[in-house]
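Worked Example 4.2. Consider the chain below.
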Amino acid sequence: MNKNLAAALSGCAVLVLALSGCSSDDKGAKVNDWAKTFCDQAQPQIQKRAAANQLIISTAADSKPETIKAADSKAFADIAAADRALAKAVESAGAPPVDNGEKIQQDAIKQFNATAVAYEGLKKQVDALDTTNQQKFADGLKAVSEGLGKIQNMDQDAVAKLQAGELGAAMAKQPGCQTPSASPKAGAPKAGSTPVTKSTASAKP
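Applying the procedure from the previous section yields the following structure tokens:
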């Protein structure tokens, strides 16, 4: 379960555009201009999500339940706020000048807002965890991890709506849409495709 908790944050860090085969014959300046407009607005939110991921990864596996609870709560709150801001950034940038651009825009806005609501729900769930009972805390974190796995898929869908084809290729070229790598503390789990977080590992009965 603890793998899922960080995987959804690092693996779903918004707009990590690892795209291959970028096309050189896209629609040109208009697509690139849209990508720049969006990515410039998105950059602070990408940074916020990266910081939230870092907070979870760098929290030691043997931390006290209160520390784990506080870290997860803050991370989920920050990601929710970032997703709401990303929805506004997509709205502000306008419909991208690609086929079905208006639908792509509306779908992405809807999905980012939906993931924000879901992360807010996880924050409430974490805030309600009983840190005085190790078994209850472990069980609660298991439920949080399971819920996060579902949100992970939602997050990926939101990103996928913007990553496809020429639009994604244009965004991949923009510095504003690049996500900084997490830098785990010495002895902490490393960030990657299947990073391990502190959450369920530290909640021993």
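The first helix runs from residue 2 to 10. The chain has seven helices and no strands. Compare this with Example 4.1 before moving on.
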